[in-house]
Design a protein that fits this description.
The structure is a single chain. The protein is α+β, with helices and mostly antiparallel strands. It folds into four domains: about 100 residues, Trypsin-like serine proteases (Thrombin, subunit H, Beta Barrel), CATH 2.40.10.10; about 100 residues, Thrombin, subunit H; about 90 residues, PDZ domain (Pdz3 Domain, Roll); about 80 residues, Roll (Pdz3 Domain), CATH 2.30.42. The protein has eleven helices and 29 strands. The longest helix is centred in the N-terminal third of the chain and has 22 residues.
Length: about 450
């Protein structure tokens, strides 16, 4: 054997030995005396606070006295009862009270809501309240030894901060993905009525809705809500509702079962670069008051058209959407400090938040108490129904469109209100739901 070949064989043998040792070697816990970074310790504390949610929806026939008669039942199509289950996630925010926050769309119209903890325990949940406009719902379970996530101050988040998403994608069970904060205060997406999203590239998929977005300390910074997925898969653009907004909404729901949203009574527009230049305010951000409604909270406080709102309760605002979000989460009757620029001078005004424009009332409230209505191109839209109210009990649901009263067509709210004067005892309203027309029978 040549000396060259002899050395070559030894080299091959040595390489095989090294490769074999490497293949079976474990990752060392420490390198140069330093512990390797790992999210495991934080996740071991945070994951028990994230739950899986399953909701069941049963469709049923409306209350109709005629359908109790076999003769009439022969001529009416009776919707068959069916079940639909949706899966999502939720986060325990109060271990003592058993409060869980999730997305409204996860439990919307649910007849039964089931919660499964990380340790396998299952509980039926009580719906405390829901708010479709922010897509937040508050549930409650009765259980011992719960783990809650502490809430972080989401206003302190910065683009580039590391975050971790915890949820139940595709019904797989608890799954963790990591990424960074890609953007802040995202709005104008048309996902919710009130938008102030955290954008993240942490992978969020169907089933993650209602789950936790946490920082590296294991504190809740947001509730995962939506993704942009043009091709049907995750492309690294996900959105979460900030924890500060979640906390405010959850407090409303715990106290009242709904968000009692207040208004200023102004029409706003963004302070664009052109407007800022026109006002001599180059570099400033805020929202311009375009119109002040008569007898509104803003009018009573002294706000005027042309005022530029720059801060609310000493926190800067940089758009009309930001003003709407801040005001919409304040309680009715709450005092708020609004900072404006008027004719180049900074001024402060104390405003008492007024009740939002609620469209039920008068004679209608006797029958449809709890329904919130507005005109739309497809009839009178039911944009909100308070759970367990009279309107809820007779079968009215969010997304219904009222088209007639006692089978007499109505085209708008004005005609609908007049309809209650046409009849001494209005018996029914006709609604359009999922392309079909149904009658809902009124109860006095």
């Amino acid at each position: 054997m040549h000396k060259h070949n002899y050395h070559s064989l030894w080299l091959v043998a040595l390489l095989i030995l090294l490769i074999g040792q490497t293949s079976f070697a474990k990752l060392p816990a420490r390198v140069d005396g330093q512990a390797l970074p790992s999210l495991a310790p934080m996740l071991e504390k945070a994951m028990p606070a994230v739950v899986n949610i399953s909701s069941t929806i049963r469709s049923r026939a409306f209350k109709n006295p005629l359908l109790n008669d076999p003769f009439f039942r022969h001529f009416f199509a009776i919707p068959k009862q069916r079940e639909k289950q949706s899966r999502g996630s939720g986060v325990i925010i109060d271990a003592n009270k058993g409060y869980i926050v999730t997305n409204h769309h996860v439990i919307e119209k649910a007849d039964e809501i089931s919660v499964t903890l990380l340790d396998g325990r299952q509980f039926n949940a009580k719906l405390i309240g829901e708010d479709s406009e922010t897509d937040v719902a508050l549930l409650q379970i009765s259980a011992d030894n719960l783990t809650a996530l502490p809430l972080a101050d989401s206003d302190k988040l910065r683009i580039g901060d590391f975050v971790v998403a915890i949820g139940n994608p595709f019904g797989l069970g608890q799954t963790v993905t990591s990424g960074i904060v890609s953007g802040l205060r995202r709005s104008g997406l048309g996902i919710e009525a009130y938008e102030d999203f955290i954008q993240t590239d942490a992978s969020i998929n169907p089933g993650n809705s209602g789950g936790a977005l946490v920082d590296l300390r294991g504190k809740l910074v947001g509730i995962n809500t939506a993704i942009i997925a043009p091709g049907g898969g995750n492309v690294g653009i996900g959105f979460a509702i900030p924890s500060n907004m979640v906390q405010q909404v959850a407090q409303h729901l715990a106290d009242f079962g709904e968000v009692r949203r207040g208004i200023l009574g102004v029409k706003m527009q963004d302070l664009t670069a052109d407007l800022a230049a026109a006002f001599g305010l180059d570099g400033k951000k805020g929202a311009v008051i375009a119109e002040v409604e008569p007898n509104s909270a803003a009018k009573k406080a002294g706000l005027r058209s042309g005022d530029i709102i720059t801060a609310i309760n000493d926190k800067p605002v940089n758009s009309a959407t930001a003003v709407r979000n801040r005001i919409g989460l304040l309680r009715i009757g709450e005092k708020v400090k609004i900072t404006v620029i008027r004719k180049g001078r900074t001024r402060n005004f104390n405003v008492v938040i007024a009740d939002s424009k609620r469209v039920d009332g008068g004679d209608i409230s006797r029958y449809l108490e709890g329904a919130f209505l507005k005109d739309s191109s497809d009839g009178i839209e039911v944009y909100k129904v308070t759970r367990n109210s009279n309107a809820w009990q007779i079968g009215l649901r969010r997304g219904d469109h009222i088209v007639a009263i006692n089978r007499r067509k109505v085209k708008d709210l004005e005609e609908f209100k007049q309809g209650f004067s046409w009849y001494k005892t209005p018996r029914s309203v006709q609604i359009r739901r999922d392309g079909a027309i149904y009658s809902i029978w009124l109860e006095r």
